[in-house]
Write a structure and sequence with these properties.
alpha+beta, two-stranded antiparallel ribbon, binds iron/sulfur cluster, four-stranded antiparallel β-sheet
Amino acid sequence: MNAKTLYDMFSASFEAVGVIDTKTYVEEANKMHRDIPEVIYPTMVVLGLAYPKRFMKHTKTHLYPSFYTFGSDYHQVLKSRMESVLKETDLSYALAVDNHPHDERLAAVLGGLGFFGKNQLIIHPEHGTYMFLGIVFIDVKIDKPYVLEVTDDCGTCRKCIDACPTHALDEGYDMNKCMSHFNQSKRDLTDDEVDANYSLFGCDICQMVCPKNIKKGVLTHPEFMLSGKEAVSILDLFQDSEKVFREKYKDMSYLWKGKTILMRNAVCLLYKQNNTLYNDLIEASLEKLTTPWYVETTTRLLARLKHME
Ligand code: SF4
Ligand code: SF4
């Protein structure tokens, strides 16, 4: 099959498309000592779907996650768009969207979707870092790759390195220091981590400061329109059961690790707001929840919140 044909098929539904052969991807991943699984499909289509930049401020009653979680869950949105394209064909395929063992950023660079920024994100010429990535492995051989040329790079800029509050970008990338990693981890947070954390889930700082993102992040696909569920009610977090909360906030990607992580992060934010309005509810949550990392962080911060009363 002609790679340009695949490119055109997907271009109607995605802002960025690259068609590469899997062999090249595997060779490059091996050179970089990346531990990727074996792939039987000879061709990869690497896709980027733009999402909008939005910033919401926490209030005394509602807290916000990173804006990439606003709108419908991007995993489902990408899969559904990929499947709509593929159902018009008789191709055999496999999909990979986030939470998979492949290196989609390497695939995106090889696919010409953008360059790899010092903030560890792919930077697309028109959409900056505001793009979700996904891969379709296809069981058809292509004659040669179809990839757009990328000539830009970070140059001498280091704004994201200097702006990162946890110094996670000081020497390459230290995942363990990254807020977006630790506020999604099921563990007790240290006092330094609590102090650094400003979000209910994730972190947007190294995207917000990037000069390559100026005037980017404006395209809103219908799936990423605001639904109201991006504002998480603190009452819902501490009063609702996991089941009721999941039903109320259905389709939001910040739910993928469950409600307890959001509760722990909410306690951190309430502590930083000096917001003692929910002390009784937090205390009651400790009588019901025995998850050790939740109990450890929450007990420590609740004692301090009580001193503020
Ligand atoms: S996501 Fe936040 S903590 Fe992580 S590297 Fe970027 S600025 Fe630093
Ligand atoms: S802030 Fe500067 S160094 Fe960081 S990714 Fe953007 S352009 Fe590159």
